[in-house]
Amino acid sequence: MAGAQQRRVCFLLKVRADRLAEYRERHAAVWPDMLAALSAAGWRNYSLFLRDDGLLVGYLETADFAAAQAAMAASDVNARWQAEMVPFFEALDGAAPDAALYPLTEVFHLD
Amino acid sequence: MAGAQQRRVCFLLKVRADRLAEYRERHAAVWPDMLAALSAAGWRNYSLFLRDDGLLVGYLETADFAAAQAAMAASDVNARWQAEMVPFFEALDGAAPDAALYPLTEVFHLD
Description:
2 copies of one chain form a homodimer. By secondary structure, chain A is an alpha+beta fold. Helix content of chain A is 32%, strand content 26%. Chain A has helices at 20-27, 32-40, 65-73, 76-85, and strands at 7-14, 44-50, 55-62, 105-110. The A-B interface holds A 8, 10, 12, 23-24, 27-28, 30, 35, 38-39, 43-51, 55, 57, 59, 103-111 and B 8, 10, 12, 23-24, 27-28, 30, 35, 38-39, 43-51, 55, 57, 59, 103-111. Strand 2 of chain A pairs antiparallel with strand 4 (105-110) of chain B.
């Protein structure tokens, strides 16, 4: 999809207050094959930001977020990564973290 | 600062639940001189995302956020814009919205 219009996506999750340090450590050393899978699935300029209380903000750019999510959902390495991430999060109601990403509405943009 | 390394900044604010519709409308029509001031101050790829309950996420890229904030704080149009925005926000404790931007910690990035 070279040259496809990129869309901006922002989502929120909540990391458990007692797991913040370990969450940071894990994300400073994400598996290389997980990074490769994200890139192959079209996740670009992807950042995670953490507030001290565990509120987590995700931001990425991609041509089609539903397609980018589906491509990750079909990836073996993602299934292994998400299974290890589940215990870090609050309030997933049994979902994998990557199945609980609800994009917020973009209300302003300046290039 | 052409070619300067861009840093990613994420911040949160809270829009009053009873002012969400008007907040959206105002941000669909930001004054052109406010947009020009942001660009001149080095705010790049700047987006605002709104959750239904009023939680607002800001994301931007800039070479030096403190300098980018200071440049806006010195701008007349920003003073007028922020004065109009104050009533839209919760919990500013008397601060202007642009003086209440506390960057979250980036814990992960993939280009």
